[in-house]
Predict the structure.
Amino acid sequence: MSATESATDPTTPRKGSSLKSMIVEVLLITLIAVGAGAAFAWFGPLHAAAQSEGGKTSAASAPASSVTCGPETTALLDLPPVVTNIGSPSDVWVRMEASVIFEAKAMPHPETIAAEIATDELAYLRTVTLAQLQGPIGLANIRQDLTDRAMIRSGGKITELVLRTLVVQ
């Protein structure tokens, strides 16, 4: 078989076509994921509204939930999600969702402190490097630093900050 026959042989794989097919597959998967997210964003509030009309409250409509732990009543409050780029490298983005556990009787209006804590999270994440986020030790250190900041901001009324999601892209 000569070199010209192998170049025109349809059974011989070409390098460019495999790269193109891989790009098409990645784009197709991305479009499917975006479509599923858009569908959830579109129909999610409709489902929550249908549940609340039936006399039931949905989890999304109640930001703080009470949990009894011994004689004190503690509550869990979801903080607003934080999306920002990190300090180094600056082209890496991070999205974090967190909740705080606090004593319900000690904080009558936790939403105001929650907004301040979210601002502190944003400022802190903008100083973090990618190496600090890597591995279980890095995650534990980030969680501890954010918990300490939340406790200082609230004057000790917040007992713990719980990281729900931390996505680095």
